[in-house]
Design goal:
CATH superfamily: Aldolase class I
Structural class: alpha/beta
CATH topology: TIM Barrel
Helix content: 25-40%
Number of strands: 9
Bound molecules: iron/sulfur cluster
Number of domains: 1
């Protein structure tokens, strides 16, 4: 069993994983690189994924009116009061952060670490880039590979579900094999890959959600972010929900599903998140997602009560 799994935490948390490597608190500085998204600018669609807010899933990203350096400095001045001794992950979260020319990507990411390996701040240890798997051309992969020789690089891919019918319904805009291809190429370049999934998507069953976990765990990924579907005010899903409300998972249902999903995830895969973190001002439902620490605590209690551990069902993955 992974040494980071213990009686208290029955799965490998991101924070324990990072503490084990860096021996310090490592926290995210969330930046907005002012990118757009092919699922919003008309290349694929103008509507976006149905759950996505106008901020492009970057509700806590920096202010786009500030330069990246200003965003970074503003955030560390706040965070350093809490963790004066920590290290940073420079996280490009909002929209699709590889949806541009390589030249323009360099204007953003080379600010974090330049060609001569000079860091924007010496306490930055990781560069994390959130994107879509269909926005990784060979040219962009070549640049990411170069970047990964300068700094630990994470690429985060929004996948959400392996059910292709749901993928169509949520307007994801690409098929599963696009993810397979992107993960394999990134893995081949030794880039750390994190896949995002969402539980509770409309019409999805328990088995769909378990299948999604099995699907992504059969790819060479390094981390998973598990989110609960939440309905944000300025999303397409809000219109659907307001016109015809559909069932959302309860906290208890969510806890049981996540616990079961964790059991299928091999213990070499880091669990970056087990619940979402919506902006309270923009949330329609469900309200229980706002109590992030309660959700995490309930999952921990459920795992302990049932003696379930991350990966204890991995043998049944296929
Ligand atoms: S790919 Fe990401 S940014 Fe683009 S519409 Fe979907 S969730 Fe929003």
């Amino acid at each position: 069993m992974n040494k980071l799994i213990n009686n208290e935490k029955h799965y490998v948390t991101l924070s324990n994983y990072l503490k084990d490597i860096y021996h310090k608190k490592v926290y995210k500085i969330t930046l907005n690189g002012n990118f757009t998204c092919p699922n919003r600018d008309g290349k694929l669609s103008y509507n976006g994924c149905i759950y996505c807010s106008s901020k492009g899933s970057g509700d806590f990203a920096g202010n786009i009116n500030d330069s990246i350096v200003e965003q970074f400095n503003n955030q560390i001045s706040i965070m350093e009061k809490k963790w004066p001794d920590g290290y940073y992950i420079a996280y490009f979260q909002a929209n699709t952060n590889t949806y541009d020319t390589v030249e323009n990507l360099k204007k953003r990411f080379d600010l974090i670490i330049d060609k001569n390996n000079k860091l924007l701040n010496d306490k930055i240890k990781i560069l994390s880039i959130a994107t879509r798997p269909d926005c990784l051309s060979d040219e962009i992969l070549k640049y990411l590979s170069e970047l990964s020789n300068r700094i630990t690089l994470w690429v985060e891919l929004g996948f959400q579900t392996s059910n292709e019918l749901t993928a169509k319904y949520i307007n994801r805009g690409y098929s599963n094999n696009v993810l397979d291809d992107a993960v394999k190429k990134l893995h081949h370049l030794n880039i750390n890959v994190i896949v995002h999934i969402i539980n509770g998507l409309p019409n999805e069953t328990y088995h769909d959600m378990i299948n999604t976990i099995k699907y992504v765990c059969n790819l060479p990924i390094d981390g998973i972010k598990i989110h609960m579907l939440h309905i944000l005010k300025d999303s397409t899903l809000a219109n659907i929900y307001n016109t015809k409300p559909f069932n959302l998972l309860t906290l208890n249902e969510y806890v049981e599903i996540v616990a079961d999903q964790l059991r299928y995830i091999p213990d070499n895969i880091v669990i970056h998140r087990i619940t979402g973190d919506p902006d309270i001002n923009n949330l329609i439902a469900p309200n229980w997602v706002l109590k992030k620490f309660v959700v995490i605590d309930e999952i921990d209690k459920y795992l302990r009560k049932n003696n379930y551990y991350q990966g204890d069902l991995t043998i049944n993955l296929k």
